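REQUEST
  id: r-88c1
  op: predict_structure
  target: Restriction endonuclease type IV Mrr domain-containing protein
  payload:
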Amino acid sequence: MEQVDLRNRRALIGYIPRGNASDNRDGDSTLTATAALRRLVALLADGTGLEEFGEQCSSEFGISKASFTSMMHALRHTGLVEQTSFNHFAPSEDAHRLVDEGNERLLAAHLHARYLFFGEILCHLGKSATTSTLVAVAKDVYGYTQASNGEVRLRLSFLQDAGLVERVDWQRFRVTAAGRSFTKNLTLQLPVGAELEGIDPAGPQSAPPASVPAAVIAQLRQYGNVGTDSRDFEEAVAQAFAFLGFQAEHLGGSGRTDVLGIAQLATKDRYRIIVDAKSSGSGQVAESDVKFDALRDHKRKHKADHVVVVGPDFAPRLKNWAAENEVILLRIEDLATLLDQHSRNPMPLTELRDAFSRIDTFSDDLAERYQALERRSLLMRRIIDLAFQEAVDEDPVDDGYISVENIIYALRKEFTPRPSRQEVDELIAFLSSPVVAALESTKGRHKLIDSPRNLALRLAGLGGIVATS
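RESPONSE
  id: r-88c1
  status: 200
  body:
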């Protein structure tokens, strides 16, 4: 592979169901990432209809229709599944060989060729490192601005299955001897600094990533796993919910909740949450540490609509008790992922309210909502890319203009389901507005009227003007 090919690999693997939500599995039963792909390919057999495959996945993995759509989008881009006719899919020619037991390293090499920051991870695990450290490396060293804890964890899972990476403890990973040897057979992407020469400064480039609350995430991990610095942990949790858009106040003390969060919206939309911060030196909040009676009192006292408990992890029975008491248990790592996703695709407080109301499916519901936001952002980026390509074409077909129909056709294989007319129209209306001033629209045709770099600067500037402390 050439460096240009490595830089153009896909950024996101996406949603791969691991399967403990199905009635057909034990409550704590989950598959590894590789085993999940193996099972999905097996379910397809020699080919099946989309509806039948959806029913099989619902039974096997317990996933919703929205999750199935996200899964299909991810699965097709792995190169393991292909569409053979309308709404009919089958394993690709190499799929069974790639997912067979014993071929985990072959699968890793295949995924490295398709996704950013895959084999490159091995070069940065000579000393044990955390997921968040690897995310920073992906962004700073390789310009992989969409890197997230979830995406890096998924890559690490595949590499672990192949015996190329091993877990040191619950946070850190390191490369194995086999992993070091494996990298010698891969063509790896060079750091961004080594590839700057020759890049067209006017062309489409990734905008600088939004300010990720790295310090807050670091504090959550530091103070949430010691069991002694409860006040520091409470303050970190308050900062985390402030980043999500709440007016968050650290209270603490006897008879009061640790954090009170208020969504400052119109009267009918306004809501309150209380957050109990539980630090634990053992890495797990014990059953006796969560007082549901006290949480009910705090909820009543602060006139809260929702109750959240944040901790490193939770004793198994706590999860059932929490659901019975309408309390959301939020792991520190899940909160860190939420903050990272929110920094790139902020979720409106009204949508967060809807997610808080779904106690049993809170995490899955949030994941689906952020996937929808990410899809919209990626679709907007690709529309800009297509408009740029049409504008700089030395022999443009139509004076640099492109139609919605051509956009949908060009992107039909990149998104599952394919972009709808409404989705594209909404984004074009946004990009054509005088404030954004990216596109000019005439009689159903659209033309780029500024460089993508200027567009990124304009949007960043608007964000800076709107931002409040």
